[in-house]
Write a structure and sequence with these properties.
Elements: H1 2-15, H2 19-23
């Protein structure tokens, strides 16, 4: 019966993009995957919504267009991973290593990226509206045309490419933006 409910929820999640955030609260968390378990080498056909993947070494893996809605990826090593078009809505990436990761067109609405290392990551056209990016390291990251209406207090954006980025509603209090390319950005909202 529990398996049937999970399949039903995943079907609804496919049809209604924001349904998983509300429905995730009604489901028990999945058990954590351990490194010594047999993990499929090709997860391209697997959605990892609500998965507990904290602390795993997933560097360099291909997760293009995969769904990680409300997944726990805190302190996970995703350096050089391909997360192009990934759905990371409400995912917990606190303290994750995303160094050099490809997050082009990724959707990270309401994701927790506080303290995450995104240095050298490609976030071109990523949607980070309402994300928590406090203290994130984004040195040299490519944020071209990204939607950054996020809490970026104390973030390190030195030498980042912010060309065409939408910083409307972004909180950049204490952010280090030395050397950042801010050509044609949308300015933050001012009251």
């Amino acid at each position: 019966m529990n398996h049937f409910i999970r399949i039903l929820v995943m079907t609804v999640a496919f049809l209604m993009p924001f349904a998983p955030v509300a429905l995730a609260q009604a489901l028990p968390p999945l058990r954590q995957v351990t490194e010594d378990e047999t993990v499929p080498l090709d997860w391209r056909q697997t959605d990892l919504n609500w998965a507990d993947l904290r602390g795993l070494d997933l560097r360099g893996r291909d997760y293009q267009y995969r769904s990680f809605v409300d997944a726990n990826l805190s302190n996970t090593n995703l350096s050089r991973a391909d997360l192009t078009g990934a759905n990371l809505i409400s995912a917990n990436l606190k303290g994750a290593d995303l160094t050099g990761a490809d997050l082009t067109w990724a959707t990270m609405i309401h994701a927790n990226l506080s303290g995450a290392n995104l240095s050298g990551a490609n976030l071109t056209n990523a949607n980070l509206i309402m994300a928590d990016m406090r203290g994130a390291d984004m040195r040299g990251a490519n944020l071209r045309d990204a939607k950054l209406g996020a809490n970026m207090r104390g973030a390190d954006l030195r030498d980042a490419n912010l060309t065409g980025a939408d910083l409307t509603w972004a909180d950049l209090t204490g952010a280090d933006m030395r050397g950042a390319d801010m050509t044609t950005i949308s300015a933050p909202y001012k009251r």
